[in-house]
Specification:
Blueprint lengths: L2 H18 L16 E2 L16 E2 L13 H5 L22 E10 L5 E13 L4 E14 L26 E20 L3 E20 L8 E17 L4 E16 L2 E18 L4
Antiparallel strand pairs: 1-2, 3-4, 3-10, 4-5, 5-6, 6-7, 7-8, 8-9, 9-10
Length: about 280
């Protein structure tokens, strides 16, 4: 083969290789950098079998503030979507005054069952401690399970025959100091979150009891002094509204047929309450 033919074949192969190579991107001025993208076609993979690598460089952009995110504004405060898995106390009561109309009924009294209604006003010093005042009035009726046994057959009691027995309460009033050590949340099927706190209250109590010195004497009213202990719970529905229920026991001294005896009145109480003043 002549030297001219060999030279012609070499030039033809060099032109073919140049045509198969992709053109290089134009250079970008250094004063105005911009994102670049370098792509190696699959048809022009290196001869050693190494796969083509795609490299992308993107300029960083400033992220929007979380408070301006529309997705955050959609979640309304107080709904499960707005609450993280663990969050602090949502409904604040510190520095606010609570007013509650309440109803109370006694349970387990051997002689009289008492129904009282009244109001409680309580001021919260902070999220845990508070002090308040309550006053209730009502009436008492003979407990149904009691039967009297005399010379004849047993019969149901009457108020006249029980007038010398304790527990016939018409009025209660007292002061109380309350401590709420527990605050919690309960999710109902992921649709509603219930916020509640548990409290313990103690304080002095004054009450008016109707009792006769003996079965043959007419009953008269007398005041007695004692104390009240309560264990209860508040369930919050909004910043200003809640329901409240508790079990309370009043211990007082009563004069039964000329003797002083310590009496107890166990009751269940409940009501709705509103919060006023202060700020969250």
């Amino acid at each position: 083969m002549s030297a001219a033919r060999v030279l012609a074949c070499a030039l033809t192969l060099a032109g073919t290789a140049r045509a198969a190579s992709p053109p290089e991107p134009p250079a970008t001025p250094a004063s105005n950098p911009a994102p670049t993208l370098a792509v190696t076609p699959a048809s022009a993979a290196p001869a050693n079998g190494t796969p083509a690598v795609q490299v992308e460089q993107a300029a960083m952009t400033e992220l929007p503030a979380l408070g301006n995110d529309p997705a955050v504004r959609v979640a309304v405060r107080g709904t499960p979507a707005s609450l993280p898995p663990v969050s602090a106390q949502i409904f604040r009561i510190g520095g606010r005054t609570e007013a509650e109309p309440l109803f109370q009924v006694s349970v387990g009294d051997p002689f009289y069952r008492t129904w009282l209604a009244g109001v409680r006003v309580e001021h919260h010093l902070d999220e845990r401690w508070s002090f308040g005042f309550h006053a209730l009035g009502g009436a008492s009726g003979v407990s149904a399970p009691i039967h009297l046994v005399g010379g004849g057959a047993c019969d149901a009691p009457t108020a006249a025959r029980l007038r010398s027995t304790p527990g016939n309460i018409q009025m209660m009033a007292g002061l109380e100091a309350s401590w709420a050590p527990l605050y919690g949340k309960l999710s109902l099927f992921g649709e509603k979150t219930i916020h509640f706190d548990a409290y313990l209250a103690l304080g002095p109590e004054v009450l008016r009891e109707t009792i006769a010195p003996d079965p043959a004497t007419a009953a008269t009213g007398r005041f007695a002094v004692g104390g009240r202990a309560s264990l209860g719970e508040r369930v919050f529905f909004s910043d200003n509204f809640m329901i409240r229920f508790a079990a309370s026991e009043v211990v007082y001294g009563s004069s039964v047929r000329g003797r002083t005896e310590v009496e107890r009145k166990l009751s269940i109480e409940g009501g709705v309450a509103w919060l006023f003043g202060g700020s969250r």
